[in-house]
Design goal:
8 copies of one chain form a homooctamer. Chain A has 254 residues and is an alpha/beta fold. Chain A has 2 domains: 76 residues, no CATH class; 140 residues, 3-Layer(aba) Sandwich (Rossmann fold). In chain A, 46% of the residues lie in helices and 17% in strands. Chain A contains 11 helices and 9 strands. In chain A, the strands form 2 sheets. Chain A has a 5-stranded parallel sheet with strand order 6-5-7-8-9, sandwiched between helices. The first copy, chain A, has a 4-stranded mixed sheet with strand order 1-2-4-3, with helices on both faces. The longest helix of chain A has 16 residues. At the E-F interface, helix 3, strand 9 and helix 11 of E face helix 3, strand 9 and helix 11 of F.
Amino acid sequence: MDIRTLLEQVQEGTLSLDQAEQALKDLPYEDMGYAKLDHHRALRSGFPETVFCQGKADEHLIRIYEHLLDKNGAVLGTRATAHQFEIVKEVIPDVQYDPISRILKVERTPRPKKGCVAICSAGTADIPVAEEAAQTAEFFGTHVERIYDVGVAGIHRLLAQRDRIRQANCVVAVAGMEGALATVIGGLVENPVIAVPTSVGYGASFGGLSALLTMLNSCANGVSVVNIDNGYGAAYLASQINRLAVGEETEQGE
Amino acid sequence: MDIRTLLEQVQEGTLSLDQAEQALKDLPYEDMGYAKLDHHRALRSGFPETVFCQGKADEHLIRIYEHLLDKNGAVLGTRATAHQFEIVKEVIPDVQYDPISRILKVERTPRPKKGCVAICSAGTADIPVAEEAAQTAEFFGTHVERIYDVGVAGIHRLLAQRDRIRQANCVVAVAGMEGALATVIGGLVENPVIAVPTSVGYGASFGGLSALLTMLNSCANGVSVVNIDNGYGAAYLASQINRLAVGEETEQGE
Amino acid sequence: MDIRTLLEQVQEGTLSLDQAEQALKDLPYEDMGYAKLDHHRALRSGFPETVFCQGKADEHLIRIYEHLLDKNGAVLGTRATAHQFEIVKEVIPDVQYDPISRILKVERTPRPKKGCVAICSAGTADIPVAEEAAQTAEFFGTHVERIYDVGVAGIHRLLAQRDRIRQANCVVAVAGMEGALATVIGGLVENPVIAVPTSVGYGASFGGLSALLTMLNSCANGVSVVNIDNGYGAAYLASQINRLAVGEETEQGE
Amino acid sequence: MDIRTLLEQVQEGTLSLDQAEQALKDLPYEDMGYAKLDHHRALRSGFPETVFCQGKADEHLIRIYEHLLDKNGAVLGTRATAHQFEIVKEVIPDVQYDPISRILKVERTPRPKKGCVAICSAGTADIPVAEEAAQTAEFFGTHVERIYDVGVAGIHRLLAQRDRIRQANCVVAVAGMEGALATVIGGLVENPVIAVPTSVGYGASFGGLSALLTMLNSCANGVSVVNIDNGYGAAYLASQINRLAVGEETEQGE
Amino acid sequence: MDIRTLLEQVQEGTLSLDQAEQALKDLPYEDMGYAKLDHHRALRSGFPETVFCQGKADEHLIRIYEHLLDKNGAVLGTRATAHQFEIVKEVIPDVQYDPISRILKVERTPRPKKGCVAICSAGTADIPVAEEAAQTAEFFGTHVERIYDVGVAGIHRLLAQRDRIRQANCVVAVAGMEGALATVIGGLVENPVIAVPTSVGYGASFGGLSALLTMLNSCANGVSVVNIDNGYGAAYLASQINRLAVGEETEQGE
Amino acid sequence: MDIRTLLEQVQEGTLSLDQAEQALKDLPYEDMGYAKLDHHRALRSGFPETVFCQGKADEHLIRIYEHLLDKNGAVLGTRATAHQFEIVKEVIPDVQYDPISRILKVERTPRPKKGCVAICSAGTADIPVAEEAAQTAEFFGTHVERIYDVGVAGIHRLLAQRDRIRQANCVVAVAGMEGALATVIGGLVENPVIAVPTSVGYGASFGGLSALLTMLNSCANGVSVVNIDNGYGAAYLASQINRLAVGEETEQGE
Amino acid sequence: MDIRTLLEQVQEGTLSLDQAEQALKDLPYEDMGYAKLDHHRALRSGFPETVFCQGKADEHLIRIYEHLLDKNGAVLGTRATAHQFEIVKEVIPDVQYDPISRILKVERTPRPKKGCVAICSAGTADIPVAEEAAQTAEFFGTHVERIYDVGVAGIHRLLAQRDRIRQANCVVAVAGMEGALATVIGGLVENPVIAVPTSVGYGASFGGLSALLTMLNSCANGVSVVNIDNGYGAAYLASQINRLAVGEETEQGE
Amino acid sequence: MDIRTLLEQVQEGTLSLDQAEQALKDLPYEDMGYAKLDHHRALRSGFPETVFCQGKADEHLIRIYEHLLDKNGAVLGTRATAHQFEIVKEVIPDVQYDPISRILKVERTPRPKKGCVAICSAGTADIPVAEEAAQTAEFFGTHVERIYDVGVAGIHRLLAQRDRIRQANCVVAVAGMEGALATVIGGLVENPVIAVPTSVGYGASFGGLSALLTMLNSCANGVSVVNIDNGYGAAYLASQINRLAVGEETEQGE
């Protein structure tokens, strides 16, 4: 029962004041239970729900994939293992797995891609995180330009791609070790740069802390940072910005 | 001399091959000396240059303000002291100083404000950073909604402002201590959230580290983080996103 | 021999001054040897001894379970492995193992449950720690309300449970990553909140440090913190508070 | 207008469905604006609002003291300076200041003290934090036993106070440097222990980090921890627990 | 050739000035090559060389054991694995291995034990480190009193052993988690206390950092600290102090 | 009343059983109240009580100096300021202050110095901590050899002092920055080395953390560590070891 | 097409101004694509490209080895596994693998070795990193003196090698645990010292952090530091310095 | 008496064997007392001794300046205050002070400058550290190219200086905040790069830690790091490398 119906019943006298008062107290919250809320959010935002596969129990993961596929006609999961691919494949034969990005996806009718997000990575070892970002953004209907292996220790490789990078509505800069890529890109473009530190490195990289601090202290304007190795989070944010740039409407109000 | 002129002179034979070769080698860089480059950037981006006042020598600061006022007709500086206000005021009598945000500004013809960015702060102690963000964004021509003192320890204060927050193209969430504000807002809105940790707190806040880690580990989608107390950086990024949303043109190519 | 008997023997002249002096010197300590002390503590507090299984040698663990079962008629162990379940089962066939909470328990006559403690968890990945807390509290005779998956990134899920949470004498808030759950709950209830940071997360969560710092810096009143992943410790404390609230008598003096 | 009145007006036809629907949407939140909500909380909890004086502007602080005194007939502020005492004294002549605890208080009719909380400190340097806790708890109507200078490097001083400590419903253990006091007390009593690390120390105490980690890793049951130097927070929590133990009623529901 | 012989040859004219000058330049150092120096040290100090087995290659370890057994008639190695026991056993059948302390030892004629060192441990999980210390000290000819499981969360267990602890020339206090044992012992005895933090614990123990900081910040006099889990180092130092106390002569000069 | 007297009165019938029982319960602890206990300790150990002046209130400090001078005929305080010297001098005109070591001392009849402790410092900036150690040890009746400015970056300076260092019963090695002095000395001598990290340095010395970690990880045998800048603690421990070496008797039992 | 050719065509009229302008815009960058640039760098520097094998996919690694062998006639890879040796061996039968240094190398005609770099290691456990440095430097044509097991806990071992160390143009000092080797060497020589902290150690070495901080805080002149375990990086730098010292020409300009 | 003379006296019989033996034992060390050694080092290296002024007592500093000026005819001190300038000026009127670099220098006949070291800084706030490096290197006879304000957020400024940077025998890269300058330069040049992190920044720069970690994790070859703000250390090392490159002879042997 929604609020309008309730008020009509009060007006008509078919619902007592006490009953109405009690119902209203609970309504705003109960009307937005967990699953329901997220369906609404997905509809509004144009971004379907996704799955963080890591650590999920086998049966649980299978049920989630079946449920979301049923509802949305497509599912994307991140940080999936080869084993998880095998078990989901038994119930959804056309599920696809990319061992580099660890994306486990069912996507029968890919969305049209709009706008442009550039995803840059510093080294080849950063590609798994960059691909998690790229494939997630594409799943959300974002056009992606992949610009990999353009670390600042060989600055000409990056400069050679300057025009492609500048055309993007938003740039995702993925880098481990010293993580300087985001700053150099931030100095080259006029649109937002989302920096993704990676855990690539050893010794004093301290699991990505080095790249994280570098990026937080960036001297360039327009750079913000997400968690270490969080390609998914960067893609979500980049897709939001890209959507604002292409002017797509979403139903923001409830 | 620009590239076209140079090539014309080669074509006409008024410039030797050796001279042309040498000039071309230097041109792309020398044509973009420090000051010049930044003038271009300001023109293209629509965001005039700003000044980080902290630690600047007195004479230096005065010269920079005079120079930028001359060029742009307006200047905004961050992290200025009352002393810096006094010395700049002697040469630019209409300079304005806000001791809360520590913004030192000359703005004779304020820009029209476009779009909407919501700037939320958790506690009253976070307001200096929030105001640095708000006044910077306004200086860049961004319409700002100030929503202060909505920390998550009293969640109803925040929920009561939900509609105002949802209308923004981008939300800046400023919080110290436990820094949870960004995540709760991230769960309420569909547009990007820029989280600004502040150094407000004591003990185990370790100068803002606590809020910084909280924000980097946010469970909400669409949240990214800038440096501790970096209200200026958040405002710059928010204004970029807002500009993309309102569809304003900038001259991106060179 | 207790102090009274000793003094009577001195009065009666059956114990020499030298003998009495020597005995008194040792009595207060020797009367409280290790095992004895803990039996007393368990009797007084109403909370039977429990076992931290992690790292215990097989034979050692078996002996401890047999010994405690003999004495108390019930045993609860935390952080047990499936292997430990197998070996204890051989000697105590009705031992029960829960692979989620890793609780290994013999409980032939469950205690009646009194009062109310609410155990809330932010995400599904925090449930193992939440269940360690819940099952421990129940073993101690505490009534538990489980309220899981109410993380603050979707604040309505938590608000919908507000009434259940408010009825508790004490709330245990279990959360990893950004750990903001404790603060939001602290703002909603009037009774103590025990915050349990978990090691759930990756990157800048640094093994639970992020959630730990968040909780220590909570802006809400009435929030205190236990060690990372320490569901057991939170349950012990919550049961103490719950017992004070229901007014149960314990024999506090020696 | 409350919900009942609104529903009556709908029933009576004096409020249209549209108007009612709009009002209901805002009501639950607007009815709980910041100030109002906190008045309610204070009434329900029996704990009046307090003031964190540190960093407050002079005029701001004076207004807050006048406002709260007007409403509650009493005000307690923590971390006040001698200067703040002077300026508040000009408008509230009977305000009292304790330079040790830095408590700035107006309390015309002290509340009756109930129950018992023991506040223990390890060294004399920890007394400022201990007194912040003690005076806050007393302001909240809690009976306090002060047991100071009982650090574990001279264990007999602590053991001599065992009986006084055991009678408390809750113990606050305040200690800097190695912070072992909480664990030893935790092993002596059956009620909750709230550990407050202090920033007392030098070198490897790292501003209280040493005591904080010690307390979080306590081997004793029933110990939880608040932020470094947070005597106020420990007192709030201790008073909540004490209130539960003495069985005082609070109006928990709305 | 030693210095005296060389000088005699110069005096006798059988060694030229040039030859003598060259020889003297190298002598002080070459006379103290690696192996030789350490034999001397062992003879002087009364402490034979020991082996840090961890990470040693199989053949390497076997050769070292054979070599040291040949020279000293006894060998003690620390941090040995069961595998290392097996391979050494093939060539030295009477080698002994203790899986708790991970000591791998050949000791055909144990030394007489002198003086007294007390080795105390807080919990049963700290026993491996305590035993590494105890068996090393015994190998060095030190009489050891083992006093285990006397953690400060049950202070009476420790107090009951006060007399045994006070008789020692030096006390080794082994503790993980909150590491408070060293301070309490330091307050009870008049001789030096060597604190050994252990990596026992989880969460905010951060691999022993918590116990390490606690011990460095000890309020008790006469407490010093060695590296985390360094039972061997504590035993070496304790044996040095014990030797000074029993007045045993060593040949200190060269 | 001591235990013997009490028992005699029971035997004589002048003390009832109830009275005796009550007295005995309190006696072991009350007989060792704070001040009394420490007097006993000082008598037993031969080391008089000392004062940590830092942060002490003026009146408090004066009273402590008068009290200890009265009792012991001598007082030593550490970390005193020039101001504290002035105020104590007003009541104790022969008090002496050393601005380098910040020792504030009254010592009318210096004790005879026994044994030998070598106190070595790496650089001139470490001398304040070295002198705190040296003067404290001398106050405790220990003979001290000062060997300053022998940092390992100029190894010959240290080697030239090898014989003086080897004659000591114990060596205190004081060093900041990279803190390598303790290890090199540890390799040269056969007696214990107490390492004192100092906060001397800048940048990556992180307030003494660098030297602290260096010393904890020392490869040399017989090295233990005290807190950063804790010259007093090193002197106390060195004097204990020196006392054991010279065979001085102390009354260890109660 | 290079710049000269382009200009000639403009002069000759065979290239239009528009075409020339477009080509020039891209030339400076596209002329220096990734692979090409690095070939140039290798030619200029005299140091052939190397491979960081860790984490490389099997097929990828094989292709890289074949490609580089083809181009340079030699390949050196670091951090290779035994498995990687096996797979590369199948296609390049004369590839060599050293399990200590984990160097995987094809070197058919070793370069002549010039100049002198001394590589010193503190303990035997540091040898893998030292060998990575030594073999890399040799591959680059540098003469290497290996001076191992000269840790400062036995200073005479190091002093005995003083002359060999002093003859080097550059010294690489490899040490874990307390890492003091670099400082002592820095005080003995007049040429640069490159310090390599290693992750050798346990407990408070925190994965090499201890040695890293020690080396950064070195009191000796002429010491700089590379990342933990980065033997390769030290060798590259040492070979650069050695090359400058021997006066070998490289083609620095483009 | 040197070794040769001593041996001659033995040969001639004017020195007894006992006397010779004793003399030889002390000679190698006593012949290299502190002051003497450093004079030798200065002579050999061509680098005169310098003074770290910070924290030096006034009289001490004056004496050191007089002494070194007397001996070397020139003195350079780093980290001097304006006050120190005043007091030294009273005794050495031609001493010069640069408030930016905080260099306090007497240099009556500047050395000829040889070779080339490029000193680059990222921002204007890094100039004090860069100037400490530049003026120190010049004092050591090194030709310096200053290339300031070439931070990587505006990469064209740096690229425009590429030729000047490439001509240097060694580059010093000074940068705070994100510290990426060293890596980008490392990718442009073939000679060594010495990275100097500065404490410039705020928030997550943690006093220079961010730049330090960035530089240690540099992806570019040939980059090593000195302590935060250590311009002096970088200049010393750069001058050593430059000297090797220009082939200047030093007397390395003793």
